């Protein structure tokens, strides 16, 4: 779709400009065949207003009376796309993108959203580049049957709270299931979709059981999937331990490597358990699988775990290597790989998360430091890319929720085979991008805005 950007100008009432009239640049009116002095519907987000358009010899601008601007929630200085639909007589400006954030720190004006404030500024810069307005709001602002929302926007070097219409597109960056499942949040999203046609992406967290159960329905993906089940009882543990020398128990809603237990079969009938904690790994050895189960049974009752086959993965200096692929939809709505990075586990850990002392490198560097032969590295890189896209499409096909980006954790075993470790629907904005510290808009952020524009059709 061809788009044109216009600058929003809010000016006092004049003989030409009342609260039912907007003034559009002649050149843009000609390009979009916008009829002059005729009534039409002006739309910004969920806001709709009958207006008359008059034209003037100005450069790429759309002028508003302050009363009309306040009524539809438009703010001075915005650079927005404009699109006129002849068949329905609607002049749309936008898109308006809303981002759901977990909390606002009112006593920290420079970092009101904590660690993701820099990401929110970067999203704002990308929206300015591509002709969109973006606002950020926590769960407390989300109400049922709302026609507007109080949200934060960044302009002129500071964050300000303003009133906006319900956005064209909402991106869910809530960082806990507790926030996501609040009744007011769920009702707000339901109403936004049903009443205003809002597109919501990354609608929910995925858990490990849900992911593996869904992907098993796609026969073409079976080769990527280690044997993995929702843990149920001792018999399941005993059966899996008889088939695999290493097993993992992972909290199904866990993140950052928290709470993972590694079980290793030792010579004889002994088993060693490694428990992750903030200081590293705690080891404990048991004379039998039944003794091990008795020791951890209490822990297994406190939350649900996924029991997963351990893999003989490539390493460097004894440290496990895995890969995080960031797969996103872009300007055409199609899945594409934005980045893949290698992650090397910390010295005292068996998981590679940065929060557990892991380090980043690029894929080429990670493979070069491993036992993968130089001739095999090219094909391994190609398999990592294919697996990333295959798995993203499998999630889309088998899980009835809308995702615009996925963090897909992959591993390579010592034979060069690619395996899926897990899928994250709220990938970090820090550890999944190309390794540079330049002050520019990252490709991952550009993709998010481009996809939101695609969804909004403005």
How would you sum up this structure, described in words?
By secondary structure, the protein is of the alpha+beta class. The chain is 27% helix and 33% strand. The protein has eleven helices and 25 strands. It has a seven-stranded mixed barrel. The protein has a six-stranded antiparallel beta sheet with strand order 14-19-15-16-17-18, with helices on both faces. Helix 3 crosses helix 11. About 3% of the residues have low confidence. This is YheC/YheD family protein. It comes from Paenibacillus planticolens.
SSE blueprint and pairings:
Layout: E1 4-10, E2 21-25, H1 26-32, E3 39-44, E4 47-56, E5 61-64, H2 66-72, E6 79-85, E7 90-94, E8 96-100, H3 117-130, E9 133-137, E10 148-155, E11 158-165, E12 169-172, H4 177-180, H5 183-196, E13 199-201, H6 208-215, E14 228-230, H7 234-243, E15 246-251, E16 261-265, E17 271-277, E18 280-286, H8 289-302, E19 305-309, E20 315-316, E21 319-329, E22 335-344, E23 359-362, H9 363-368, H10 374-398, E24 405-412, E25 418-424, H11 443-456
Parallel strand pairs: 1-5, 2-4, 3-7, 8-9, 8-12, 12-13
Antiparallel strand pairs: 1-6, 2-5, 3-4, 6-7, 10-11, 14-19, 15-16, 15-19, 16-17, 17-18, 20-21, 21-22, 21-24, 22-23, 24-25
Helix pairs in contact: 3-11
């Amino acid at each position: 779709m061809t788009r044109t950007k216009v600058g929003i100008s809010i000016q006092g009432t004049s003989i030409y400009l009342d609260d039912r009239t907007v003034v559009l640049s002649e050149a843009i009116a000609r390009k979009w065949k916008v009829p002059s002095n005729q009534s039409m519907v002006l739309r910004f987000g969920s806001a709709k207003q009958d207006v008359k358009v008059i034209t003037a010899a100005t450069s790429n601008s759309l002028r508003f009376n302050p009363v009309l601007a306040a009524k539809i929630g438009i703010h001075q200085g915005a650079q927005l796309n404009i699109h006129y639909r002849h068949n329905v007589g609607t002049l749309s400006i936008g898109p308006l993108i809303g981002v759901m954030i977990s909390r606002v720190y009112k006593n920290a004006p420079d970092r009101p959203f904590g660690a993701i404030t820099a990401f929110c500024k970067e999203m704002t810069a990308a929206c300015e580049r591509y002709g969109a307005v973006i606002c950020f709001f926590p769960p407390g602002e989300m109400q049922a049957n709302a026609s507007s929302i109080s949200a934060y926007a960044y302009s002129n070097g500071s964050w300000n709270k303003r009133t906006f219409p319900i956005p064209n597109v909402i991106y869910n960056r809530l960082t806990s299931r507790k926030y996501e499942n609040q009744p007011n949040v769920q009702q707000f999203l339901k109403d936004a979709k049903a009443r205003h046609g809002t597109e919501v992406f990354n609608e929910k967290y995925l858990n490990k059981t849900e992911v593996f159960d869904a992907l098993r329905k796609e026969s073409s993906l079976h080769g990527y999937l280690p044997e993995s089940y929702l843990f149920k009882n001792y018999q399941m543990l005993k059966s899996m331990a008889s088939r695999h020398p290493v097993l993992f128990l992972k909290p199904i809603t866990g993140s950052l490597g928290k709470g993972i237990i590694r079980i290793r079969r030792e010579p004889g009938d002994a088993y060693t358990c490694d428990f992750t904690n903030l200081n590293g790994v705690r080891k404990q050895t048991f004379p039998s699988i039944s003794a091990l189960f008795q020791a951890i049974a209490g822990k297994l009752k406190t939350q649900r775990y996924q029991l997963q086959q351990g893999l003989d993965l490539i390493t460097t200096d004894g440290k496990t290597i895995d890969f995080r692929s960031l797969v996103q939809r872009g300007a055409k709505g199609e899945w594409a790989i934005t980045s893949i990075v290698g992650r090397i586990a910390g010295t005292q850990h068996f998981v590679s998360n940065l929060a557990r002392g892991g380090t980043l490198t690029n894929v080429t560097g990670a493979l070069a430091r491993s036992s993968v032969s130089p001739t095999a590295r090219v094909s391994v890189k190609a398999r990592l890319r294919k697996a990333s896209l295959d798995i993203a499409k499998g999630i889309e096909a088998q899980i009835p929720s809308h995702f615009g980006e996925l963090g897909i954790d992959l591993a390579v075993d010592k034979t060069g085979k690619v395996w899926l470790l897990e899928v994250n629907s709220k990938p970090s904005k820090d550890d999944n991008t190309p390794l540079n510290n330049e002050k520019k808009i990252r490709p991952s952020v550009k993709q998010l805005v481009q996809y939101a524009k695609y969804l909004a059709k403005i």
